[in-house]
Specification:
Shape: globular
Oligomer: single chain
Number of helices: 16
Distance between the termini: 53 Å
Helix content: 55-70%
Length: about 425
């Protein structure tokens, strides 16, 4: 394989698979707030947070981890300011104590934090402005993805501005070496076949360990609406299809309801990271697949999901469980030694069926959407194995899987934009 493409695909895996504690949108708010407090360097008296609609949508219904079951943008921002460690980025709330939670509750009662919706910005946009009683202030702006701080000011002096390379420093501005536009389904599979195991293991081992742990927690205890446990109660655990659905759903059950176990994300989402992982792991166990086979299948699962998300965007009205479950089904096809043509037909069958399932924010029902998405993707794979696939011209299906991914991405990014606005209006009672 071309060495440049090989390194590019490795970089994309490294960039997209990160450890995160809790749902990534409230964590991003907490991270930005912790960074602003660190910059201020003195006791704050006021906190202002401005967020895009998609951030508000994905924060309102989910428990902020280590918050004693509290929800909301203001909770995430104040808790991040009070007890967050900005150096830990997406694990910013790992060290929160009971004292921090009590202080957060006290400040919330005092209306210390003012939150507002800002329009006409990126789908992922957070601005935190923090002030002290003696006139000092600090500002942090985050755009596009969950650790991408693009602007920093202290007392009116610009310390970082990614629009101005002179002020940007590697310590503050996250570099992105992987280029998603270079990926194709063909070279993804080529990479998966040729990548060295020693290159994959450092990236994927934590995904298996951490996502399996939070899934087991979701199956063991009563988190959220217990979608994963419900599936096993109804259907039992004899069928690997059921176990795959239940394992993925249970991870979301726990994560959306404040479980403090971390997960390895995909494309900025813990739910998507869990969904690309657990079905593949369950099938690998059932098939007695080797460790190497599992790692290669997971690489395919993750990259196929990333390939779809490059057209959809990080946040939209399109439920990311669909793209993640589609990736997982491709990974399962790889475990079963299916051909490239079967993988392509699996993608088309899956996204042409429930592509367009709406995202109305992060919350317990995400687990049920994951269960449905995994079931759909597994059906798509079984159809493909029987040489049954949706044909070009049928709805948004195009001549190839690659073109169909693009058409679904266009539908999600452009066609569902008004849907996204209306969902937010409904959630805000507008």
């Amino acid at each position: 394989m071309d060495e440049m493409l090989y390194q590019n695909h490795l970089a994309l895996l490294k960039q997209n698979l990160k450890l995160a504690l809790g749902c990534t949108e409230p964590i991003a708010v907490a991270y930005a707030s912790a960074k602003a407090r660190e910059l201020l360097g003195t006791e704050p008296c006021k906190l202002t947070v401005e967020c895009s609609g998609n951030i508000i949508k994905n924060v309102n219904g989910v428990v902020v981890p280590n918050s004693d079951q509290m929800k909301g943008v203001d909770v995430a921002a104040v808790l991040g300011m009070v007890g967050g460690d900005a150096s830990r980025q997406l694990e910013v709330l790992q060290g929160v104590t009971k004292e921090h939670i009590a202080k957060t509750a006290q400040l919330l009662e005092q209306n210390f934090c003012y939150c507002s919706l800002v329009e006409g910005v990126e789908n992922l946009y957070i601005r935190v402005f923090i002030e002290s009683a003696d006139g000092h202030n600090a500002e942090v702006v985050m755009r596009d993805y969950h650790t991408n701080i693009t602007h920093i000011e202290k007392d009116g002096t610009v310390l970082l501005d990614q629009q101005n390379p002179v002020t940007a420093t590697p310590a503050e501005a996250e570099t992105t070496s992987g280029r998603p536009e270079l990926m194709t389904l063909q070279n993804i599979v080529e990479f998966v076949n040729e990548v060295k195991l020693e290159d994959l293991k450092p990236i994927l081992s934590a995904q298996i360990t951490c996502n399996s742990a939070i899934s087991e927690e979701g199956l063991k205890n009563a988190w959220g609406t217990q979608v994963g446990r419900t599936l096993l109660e109804i259907y039992g655990d004899d069928d690997v299809r059921v176990r795959a659905r239940a394992a993925a759903a249970a991870g979301s059950d726990a994560r959306m309801s404040g479980c403090t176990l971390p997960a390895v994300i995909n494309s900025g989402s813990g739910n998507q990271g869990i969904t690309v992982t657990l079905p593949v792991v369950e099938y690998a166990r059932a098939l007695n697949a080797s460790e190497e086979k599992l790692y290669r299948a997971l690489a395919l699962s993750n990259l196929v999901s990333i390939q779809q998300k490059k057209y959809i965007g990080s946040l939209s009205a399109y439920c990311g469980a669909v793209s993640a479950a589609t990736g997982a089904a491709c990974g399962i096809a790889y475990l079963q030694d299916e051909s490239f043509a079967i993988i392509c037909d699996t993608i088309v069958n899956s996204i042409a069926t429930i592509g367009g399932m709406v995202c109305d924010g992060a919350k317990p029902s995400c687990a049920a959407k994951i269960s449905v998405a995994v079931e759909n993707a597994l059906n798509a794979l079984e159809m493909a194995k029987r040489k049954r696939a949706f044909q070009p011209g049928e709805g948004i299906v195009k001549e190839t899987a690659e073109e169909t991914i693009k058409s679904v991405g266009r539908m999600a990014r452009e066609g569902m934009r008004s849907t996204d606005v209306e969902i937010l209006n409904i959630m805000l009672n507008n």
